Amino acid sequence: MRVLGIETSCDETALALVEATGGLANPKFKVLKNLVASQIQIHRPFGGVVPNLAKREHLKNLPILLKKLTAKSYKLKAIDTITVTVGPGLEPALWAGIEFAKSLAKETGKPLIGTNHLEGHLYSFLLPKKTNPSFKIPISKLFPAVALIVSGGHTLLLHVKNLKTWKKIGETRDDAVGEAFDKVARILGLPYPGGPEIQKLATKGNPNAIPFPQPMRDQKNYDFSFSGLKTSVLYYLRDNPKANKADVAASFQNAAIDVLVAKTIRTAQMYGAKSILLSGGVAANQWLRKKLQTMSHKSKINFLVADPKFNTDNAVMIAAAGYMAYLRKKKYKLEARGDLGI
Length: 342
Ligand code: KG4
Ligand code: ZN
Description:
This protein is an alpha/beta fold. Helix content is about 40%, strand content about 20%. The chain has ten helices and ten strands. It has a five-stranded mixed beta sheet with strand order 3-2-1-4-5, with helices on both faces. A five-stranded mixed beta sheet has the order 8-7-6-9-10, with helices on both faces. A hairpin with a 4-residue loop joins β1 and β2 (about 10-20). The longest helix has 26 residues, at about 245-270. The model has no long low-confidence stretch (mean pLDDT about 95). The structure holds 5'-O-[(R)-(carboxyoxy)(hydroxy)phosphoryl]adenosine (KG4) and zinc ion (ZN). 5'-O-[(R)-(carboxyoxy)(hydroxy)phosphoryl]adenosine binds near residues 178, 280 and 282.
């Protein structure tokens, strides 16, 4: 099945054409086209995403990307199904994608299904990747698993029984971890989005220079909290205005990631998980990927994560999740749902 994925939940307009085969027992995805138009430069002066600006840009970019996608090898008739993100995300931005998808479906007569953005992240471990030996393990042997989804809006732990069934077991009680990266970057005078900037600056700093707190790390629950850590960075810089910023970035990153890794490993052990599935924009962080992989292997747990380009928002993961929703007979209403859960 050739699936056209459409993603406009935040500040990336993305379109992808993916060939999906194998059904629920052994889903496989071949990326035929992967297009992303980033709005980072437009939102940067505001230090974050402005919903109505995002909508305007999506409306402008969607037809351009579709033209690009169908320009050479693929024509509209090569598509079997269209799928679009209906939530969670910024509602004006989501509507731009939904309305575009609806009129495309009408024009082409192709079926249209709604997709949950978080399911896109969750299923991203199924996407083709360059390096990840665990991927050779048959799907049926990967479960039960624990999934950590870390993005700009979410920090979630899921108990995943199989490709159809999961349960949310923990989440952040305040800021998402990506949000903490973005806010700390702002405090440090770095541009939006802060995650990649902090990672870059942190390579020049000492991760053990400043002992920032690691909230809720040792509490026997599955929840997170990142706003206290962010405030500690703010106070530290207020009290030490001449501090080495690379050390601050490295120490903050170290504290945030240590909590994520420690709690995810403990959760996986508590649930007897055979695998840990990492996804979401923050999963592009090299330090998090490396640490969680090392600790998973030490605990004899498989570790699966997509290539970094499929961790940050993209439409390949949406096309994949659309295929999975179709197989699961999961039907999302074709309406923007800003607070849609998983
Ligand atoms: O999944 P995503 O692209 O969008 C949402 O669904 O929110 O995640 C975006 C978040 C931003 O907060 C961004 O700063 C963070 O992911 N991020 C990173 C890195 N790359 C992106 N955080 C830490 N390290 C990175 N390399
Ligand atoms: Zn996302």
